Write the structure tokens for this entry.
Amino acid sequence: MVDVQLLEYLEGFISEERKQRFLQILEERTTYITVAIEDVYQLHNTSAVIRSCEVFGVQEAHVIEGRFGKRLDKNIAMGAQQWVDVHRYETTDDCIATLRSRGYRIIATTPHDNSGILSDFKIQDKTAFLFGTELKGLSQKALAESDGFLKIPMSGFTESLNISVSVAIILQYLTSGLRESHLPWTLSDNEKLEKRLDWTKKSIKSIDAILARYGG
């Protein structure tokens, strides 16, 4: 449980405007859908994905980094990594197992012919969307473990989009529909408190000293 007294104490160190902004944004946040990206090579692509999650209110992102190591560029993410919970994994198996344990349905994004079209896709349960590498897409392991497939319809000669563009298109479309639905997509009251405390701490430069005084 969140230490509400600590939260109230720390909120005294941030402006009322910032506090209200946190409350406003948290009303639009969701973990009902999430994004997982598998072994993306380009630093700027991973960072842009995190930024898209933040912009469209998706609170969590999952990053599989087994092949190329850490792929998050703070400069490109433009601070978005402060506001989105990023979970890192060494293997696709670990990521998918974690998502399933948390009740997510796994949907692979792929241009394959058997993929469902974005405009026809309906969210009914908690869903995690998997995105693959820039050149080869998702691994066979990820495709085999998925519960379904999804693609963005395209009318040109090009058969694929940059991963960060694909994520932005899919999230914009799906989060808009999610907010108009009757699904339980909002954060719980306790989750909102947890994020208020987390974000407030991240907003205070001398947080360690302030926490030490509070605890002392």
User: Anything to note?
Assistant: The beta strands are 33-38, 60-64, 85-89, 105-109, 116-117, 127-131, 148-151. The mean pLDDT is 88. The longest strand covers residues 33-38.
